[in-house]
Amino acid sequence: MGLGTGTTGTGGTRVGARGARLRKALVVAGAVAAVAVVPSAAIATPGSGVGATELAQGTSHGTLPVKPPKGDTDVVFRTITVAPGGTTGWHHHDGQLIAVVRSGTLTRTLADCSVEVSKAGDSFIEPAGANKVHTGRNLGTEPVVLYVTYLLPKGAPMSVDEPAPACAPAGKAG
Fold first, then answer.
1. Where in the numbering of this chain does the Cupin type-2 domain appear (predicted)?
2. Rounded distance, CA 20 to CA 18, Å?
3. DSSP letter for each residue of 151-163
């Protein structure tokens, strides 16, 4: 009897679509069985002598538009601590920063005097450019700890001090 051929010859029964489904099921079952007996080493290779420590993890609220500088780039990873009542002062960066708030709450005031608050577990981007001045403040009672990756044009400083924008309250350093 030929599966899927429709008849077996004299006095045979019709197999048709039912036989085709049976053949397909047998093929799928055979493939699954074959995969099950393949050694797992063929799928992945185990690591050896490698360790890792997660320093911080943060979640962005939306897309992180990462844009490294054109040309050679200095990549710097820093831990920054802002004491309670502390401020970074008004500044800008010549390249982007990707930050994760490890602990505390950071309050950033931007060039248009809008305010962004980032708490432990948050991540954010600080955009590049002299027109992107900002300041960071710790208005809380515990230190703010940030893990920051800088993507700077080769040789650029970490930050450039700037005067407060016109919209900032007079006498406020940050």
1. 80-149
2. 5
3. EEETT--S-EE-P
